[in-house]
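Quick one: co-fold with fe (iii) ion.
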Amino acid sequence: MLDLHVHTTFSDGQYTPEEIVNLAVQAGIDTLSITDHDSIAGLPSGKAAADKAGIKFINGIEISCQGNRELHLLGYNFDYNEPILAATCMEFARLREERAHRIIDFLLEKGVKISLDEVREIAHGSAIIGRPHFALVLLKHGCVASIQEAFDKYLAAADFDKIERPKPTAEEGISLIKNAGGIPVLAHPALLKLKPEAEEELIKRLVGFGLVGMECFYSLHSPEQVDYYCSIAEKYNLIVTGGSDFHGEKIKPKIKMGVFLQKPLDKPQINF
Ligand code: AMP
Ligand code: ZN
Ligand code: FE
Ligand code: FE
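Sure, here it is.
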């Protein structure tokens, strides 16, 4: 069993890379990729823990791109010492730090006062401060009744866009991954929430930029969506990948590691 989409404390996940590897072993996963948002910082410790546990580990990252809130590129099997990728991740962290200050002010304007120090603490001091960290603080203070409510009311509200951070274009994201020797994959296509024609147009454009794969198997994809995306992948000659997007039960209560439709495909689709 595999899981190629998992977050750790190096972005907005609940568990450290070592804990993730233990949980993966318990779940019967033998091939794991850690794909933190905009960060490679959890890969060395994840790899060391996976080697010790005797499971296969694939370097991963999930890069947020501009154009659609859910336009996320997964990158696999790259060299995390590649200098441009490493420097760009530092820049992503800096831009998130700037946004964090804006989020504090944004919440204040809406009458909610929280401190950035508290957000940092809940983020385990990670350089990648994500919206789920704010959601956890809002939940802790009883400002909202759930993580989902924190997003609906504040962090994914229509006017959040005006305080968003600059993000790379999808073309830049794909180049970044390829330049580091990696495989660029479109994450969770159904979350883009595009109409089929617009979605296929986007996929076609990404293929033109050098996209190699698509995350057809995903914990929130229905069996029909899995079949549909597999057919689109075949049409555009994309490899098919699968992952849960596990963040830990506190952050994404419905998503479990290794739990998504996994079925054998006619031909091997990914060969690391
Ligand atoms: P950020 O990278 O800071 O923009 O935050 C992205 C994280 O927030 C990802 O884990 C998303 O899955 C999560 N997220 C985005 N929108 C929502 C939403 N509407 N409800 C719950 N989680 C969300
Ligand atoms: Zn996340
Ligand atoms: Fe994502
Ligand atoms: Fe993710």
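If it helps, Residues 12, 37, 64, 130-132, 148, 151, 156 surround adenosine monophosphate (ligand 1) (CB under 6 Å).
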